[in-house]
Amino acid sequence: MTMENAYKRKKQPELIRRALIEQAARITLEEGLSKVTFQAVADAVGVTKGGVMHHFSTKDALILAVFDDAVAKFEAEVDEAMRQDPVAYGAFTRAYINATISLSEKGQVEMNHQATLYVLMLGDSHLRELWSEWFYARLARHQDTDDAEDLCLARLAADGIWLSDFSGIQNFNKAALYQRLIALTQPR
Fold first, then answer.
1. Record's SUPFAM superfamilies (predicted)?
2. Mean pLDDT per segment of 10 residues, for the chain of length 188 residues?
3. Could you count the other beta carbons within 10 Å of the beta carbon of residue 142?
4. How far apart are CA 54 and CA 57, in angstroms?
């Protein structure tokens, strides 16, 4: 594309911003947080480095936008699962497990929004703090239905299954473990 054509195309800042966030998330999952650079994201989207900087003044601002996007998607997935769950007891935990553990065989990078969150948190203490705030707020909101030790154990096990899966450690039957975790969340 010539520069002349670049000026004639219709400007779509929200679509470009969305593409920048999605490509930064993809790079994070495939190559690691350290590989997320303005140039790498610009190349992936097909814009200039200045185009990235137009939307995000710093790499930290870009990473925070990726994190916020992943949290929003994860939260929407959890909320939708909770809306569809007819049993109040353990509903948040079941939704958390379903949003965390992918039973598909798509591969590590396409697993879910939780994958992006975990990889970002592993590389950034500030993002870990933000995740903790989100998580504790959700636990406080669902204290009446999701405060039992079995439910805490199920959430922690779901995180461990995700990490094992992401690390390529798959010497277990994920579907069977998933079923056992869901069983832990049922009222007694």
1. Homeodomain-like, Tetracyclin repressor-like, C-terminal domain
2. 51 89 92 92 94 94 95 94 97 95 56 75 90 96 96 95 83 90 94
3. 19
4. 7
**What's the rounded Cα separation, in Å, for the pair 47 and 181?**
45
CA distance 70 to 100: 12
What is the domain range of residue 57? 3-184
pTM: 0.84
In 3D, which of 143, 128, 134, 130 has the Cα closest to residue 92?
143
Per-residue tokens: 14:
């929200």
Q: How far is CA 98 from CA 14, 61, 65, 185, in A?
A: 30, 29, 24, 12
Tokens 């303005």 correspond to what residue?
Answer: 38
What's the total number of domains in the chain? 1
pLDDT of residue 30: 87
Tens digit of pLDDT for each residue in 128-160?
A: 999 999 999 999 999 999 999 999 999 999 999
